[in-house]
Design brief:
The relative contact order is 0.19. It is globular and about 25 Å long. The chain has one domain (19-64). Helix 1 packs across helix 2 (30-39). With 65 residues, the protein is mainly alpha-helical. Strands 1-2 form a two-stranded antiparallel ribbon. Helix content is 43%, strand content 9%. It starts with 18 loop residues before the first helix and ends with a helix.
Length: 65
């Protein structure tokens, strides 16, 4: 089970990921994710004031690296 993931449930492929989930996937600190979003390197969708991430945007970021 991933941190921040509901107990006993798996994420739907189209689900939006949180900063915490993306940081865990990439093995970096949450602040790094915020910096990547601020610099435009990682695309985020805003839900209210909170950034959320599509799995495709994470894949695109990793492919560009």
């Amino acid at each position: 089970m991933n941190p921040g993931e509901p107990h006993g449930q798996q994420l739907h492929p189209a689900a939006l990921l949180t900063v915490r989930q993306v940081a865990a996937l990439l093995g970096v600190h949450r602040n790094t994710i915020h910096r990547l979003v601020s610099s435009g390197e990682l695309r985020a969708v805003r839900v209210g004031r909170l950034p959320r991430f599509r799995s495709q945007d994470i894949d695109d970021y990793l492919n560009r690296r």
